[in-house]
Amino acid sequence: MLRVDDLHVFYGQIHALKGVALEVQRGEIVALLGNNGAGKTTTLKTISGLLTPRRGSVTLEEQVLGTTPPHEVVRQGIAHVPEGRRIFNRLTVRENLVMGAYLRRDRRIDDDMARAFDLFPRLRERLTQVAGTLSGGEQQMLAIARALMANPRLLLLDEPSMGLAPVLVEQIFEIIDDINRQGTTILLVEQNASMALSIAHRAYVLETGAIVLAGTAADLAANADVKRAYLGE
């Protein structure tokens, strides 16, 4: 479904991605693991069109995205939940969800909003509340729900557990797994490697801008280097 080939991305003179290559098959959850500064967020930003690679390609179902602007990437079927949530703080929950569907002209928007409330019942209770006054967990729920309102084929999730209490982390990951079971393919960036590997089908490990390990989630969870570096074992 998604193929990233030989991706090289720079910030000025800093070589952030050094030949990153990965694939995400339809229906999968693929985790992208790595320490801070490894290039995980840069990879997602490049896929979603926020950054332009100096070399390499991003292909979604045989469509080369190239220099496609971010709003057109959304139209092609990719939605990005950025690190830090980036909700519209001054808009209500409902207005944030409506903004998630701004490119759509079909008649299923109300159905997808109902689906969002099924996944995140708390958002229904907060429908008219200003988003900036929500708790951190509620804001993360809203960020994911807003992305789902674009009706994506591929969902990019960047650090969905960041700053959340352990009980909320478990809840968010259960919902991510549920979203995938309902048919949405997911590329997941996550510092909590244990939780990510518990729901992922496959995973890649990124270090200093390059992929150093790849395999099934079970294989990486059993890998001694991964255990030592990311699982605290």
What would your notes on this structure say?
The protein has 233 residues and is of the alpha/beta class. The chain has a single domain, classed as P-loop containing nucleotide triphosphate hydrolases (Rossmann fold), CATH 3.40.50. Helices cover 38% and strands 26% of the residues. It is built from ten helices and ten strands. The strands form two sheets. A six-stranded mixed β-sheet has the order 6-7-8-3-9-10, sandwiched between helices. The protein has a four-stranded antiparallel β-sheet with strand order 2-1-4-5, with helices on one face. Helix 3 runs parallel beside helix 6. The radius of gyration is 17 Å and the shape is globular.
CATH class: Alpha Beta
* Strand-residue proportion: 25-35%
Estimated radius of gyration: 17 Å
Number of helices: 10
Low-confidence residue ranges: none
Biggest sheet statistics: 6 strands, mixed
Quick summary:
This protein is 38% helix and 26% strand.
Tell me the layout of helices and strands:
Blueprint: E1 2-11, E2 14-24, E3 29-33, H1 40-47, E4 55-60, E5 63-64, H2 70-76, E6 78-81, H3 93-100, H4 109-119, H5 121-125, H6 136-148, E7 154-158, H7 166-181, E8 185-189, H8 193-199, E9 202-207, E10 210-216, H9 217-222, H10 224-230
Parallel strand pairs: 3-8, 3-9, 6-7, 7-8
Antiparallel strand pairs: 1-2, 1-4, 4-5, 9-10
